[in-house]
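Human: I wish I could look at a protein chain and see how it folds. This is the protein in question:
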Amino acid sequence: MAKKNNLTEGNIPKALFKLALPIMGTSFVQMAYNMTDMFWVGKMGSRAVAAVGTAGFYIWLAMAFILIPKIGAEVGVAQSVGNKDMTEAKAYIRHSMQLIVGIALFYASILIIFRKYLIGFFNLGDADINNTAISYLVVIACGILFSFLNPVFTAVFNGYGESKTPFLINSTGLVVNMILDPLLIYGIGPFPRLEVIGAALATIIAQAVVTAIFIALAVKRTELFSDLHLFKLPDMTHITRIVKLGFPVALQSGLFTGFAMLVARIIAQWGPIPIAVQKIGSQLEAISWMTAGGFQTAMAAFAGQNFGAQKWKRVVRGYFAGLSIMSVIGILASLLLILAARPLFSIFISEEETIRQGVIYLRILGFSQLFMCLESTSAGAFNGLGKTIPPSITGIVFNGLRIPAALLLSSTSLGLKGVWWAISLSSICKGIVLTSWYLVMLKRNQIITFRRILER
């Protein structure tokens, strides 16, 4: 393994920052894809945003399926590299790639075949919004293979300790998307005016460009991608290991989206404006969410390599360093959403009522940002050790509690605000519980290690 990719030696905060910053950048690139679409689609009004937001739930749900091979590749490659076993690392890469292609084709088929029923689930009550959402969903489904492949390629490089490469490649896709969005949505120059469909096409083309660059690079990076034998039948040992690593995280993500869809049904009783508010607001909240998610990936790679190298003290020191860094970021994110809610929301939409409700949403969500950052850091530390169940249990339980909490709080004088508070309070609980769980695990491990020393 190249020294620059070695996370088992050297200054810990420096190693975490060096790895995390490009990963955060990659996360922001993905956020920028969505925000670029929202910026241009938002110019057409809340109805267009509601259509894209509704179909977007199924794009969001796709992440649950992507996470199975993504986490498998990330953790498998990191631990294999830490153990200096590149043959095993390549085995994880091959099986993750085979798995993601099969999942992508299956998921795309489901979206296309059941498109009317999937969008009909939300009971939008507006035929135009409903039809626009269906059209957007079908177009995205036709190119979803690229959106599935790119996170797995990214995970391979992150697990290897080389996060800068996927950042640069994904950034190229963002530039393509930013150029194509206004051209295809509004029909500038020789391009036809496709509106919402144009946003979908711009995303597909940009993702296809990213996939092409990853494949071109993979041909040259023989230390990772040579002799993969992608058309060879997979062996169940590695598939089982990948699923075992990724499934708890995928289940959490899938249920999170499912719970969010149920919350959206609750919100829909107040009309299309709250749906647009949540869609735009969630993109703005992603400023901190994507930062935390990027650091979570970095923490997983760091913990994975050091766990593979059997450097437990370094795993522990890395966790506390990461916790300190993310606490600062979480506090800054809270202040940003609370104090700058109106100017942030006004970037995407000009309708005063939508902005007014959006400000309320962002300020309530602002209180949970620190705890969301703590949750992400602890989840990454757990994942790097191959212990993906604790973060999943925590996420599933408290995300599930959002539904009864939203119904209960919204039935009081809080009304719609009660739904926003249900979301925020669940994030606060997740941060407290998962961080406490990891600290207890560290304490128990310390006691076990001390007993072993005494027994010797």
Summary: The chain has one domain: 7-455. The first helix runs from residue 12 to 42. The mean pLDDT is 84.
